[in-house]
């Protein structure tokens, strides 16, 4: 049975404080990678997946993102959701529940990560279980700086911990999710809600979240050091992408 996914959330409203002074003038999701805005790279991912529509949340320097969207010519429709007060990754999903129909599967992407990955294994694995969420994972060289999972033999997430002092594994959250609409049942409205801190640990305890390692390149560009390293790595990472 094929999996028809038409929509994605591109979570892009972060302040990018660790990327200052770059993000004093440019929102984090538009910092250039190889001369192109990071969001352009993500939009290409969405186009290759055949997605019909994406929702991008905005906050810091939102006018620049609006201008970027107006300049685009893309087969993917873009809906902007401005947040005068940051709502958190889970809060953005809860606030935009009407973007997803009941029974519809959808992607969630952290748009401040740089990736060149094959998402076919994620979709294939998602079809093997009935959980609310499938996490894309990677093996982190510094797991104490990431959201870390422990998996059982079948790939069900037994434990999730954000930036643990003593990581139980090196399997890290890549900020790439494939979700079922059931996820919204676990997202209380009208509050700040972070997926890593407030949602994923409870989902793991309930046995509702699964994970699989993604092949390819994944880098969080949240610091200046990581950002400059990404600039050096990106040409070869893109060529070697699955």
Detailed description of the structure:
By secondary structure, this protein is an alpha/beta fold. The chain has one domain: Spore Coat Polysaccharide Biosynthesis Protein SpsA, Chain A (Alpha-Beta Complex). It has 7 helices and 13 strands. A 7-stranded mixed beta sheet has the order 5-4-1-6-11-8-12, with helices on both faces. Strand 2 (32-33) and strand 3 (36-37) form a beta hairpin. Helix 4 (88-95) packs across helix 6 (195-205). The longest helix is centred in the C-terminal third of the chain and has 16 residues, at 224-239. The protein starts with 6 loop residues before the first strand and ends with a helix.
- Cα distance spanning the termini: 23 Å
Based on helices, strands and strand pairing, what is the structural class? alpha/beta
CATH superfamily: Spore Coat Polysaccharide Biosynthesis Protein SpsA, Chain A
> How would you sum up the global shape?
globular
Provide the CATH topology: Spore Coat Polysaccharide Biosynthesis Protein SpsA, Chain A
DSSP strand content: 25-35%
Widest sheet, order of strands: 5-4-1-6-11-8-12
Major sheet description: 7 strands, mixed
């Amino acid at each position: 049975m094929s999996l028809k996914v038409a929509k994605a959330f591109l979570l892009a409203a972060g302040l990018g404080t660790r990327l200052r002074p770059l993000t004093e003038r440019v929102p984090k999701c538009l910092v250039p990678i190889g001369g192109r805005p990071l969001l352009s790279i993500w939009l290409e991912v969405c186009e290759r997946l055949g997605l019909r529509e994406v929702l991008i949340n905005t906050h810091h320097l939102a006018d620049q993102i609006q201008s970027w969207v107006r300049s685009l010519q893309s087969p993917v429709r873009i809906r902007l959701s401005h947040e005068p007060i940051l709502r958190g990754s889970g809060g953005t999903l809860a606030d935009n529940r009407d973007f997803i129909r009941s029974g519809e599967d959808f992607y969630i992407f952290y748009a401040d990560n740089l990736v060149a990955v094959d998402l076919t294994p994620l979709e294939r694995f998602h079809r093997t279980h009935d959980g609310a969420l499938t996490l894309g994972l990677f093996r982190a060289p510094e797991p104490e700086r990431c959201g870390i999972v422990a998996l059982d033999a079948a790939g069900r997430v037994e434990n999730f911990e954000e930036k643990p002092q003593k990581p139980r594994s090196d399997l890290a959250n890549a900020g790439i999710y494939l979700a079922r609409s059931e996820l919204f049942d676990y997202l209380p409205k009208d509050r700040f809600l972070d997926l890593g801190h407030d949602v994923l640990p409870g989902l793991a305890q309930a046995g509702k979240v699964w994970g699989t390692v993604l092949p390819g390149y994944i880098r969080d560009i949240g610091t200046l050091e990581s950002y400059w390293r990404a600039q050096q790595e990106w040409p070869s990472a893109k060529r070697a992408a699955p």
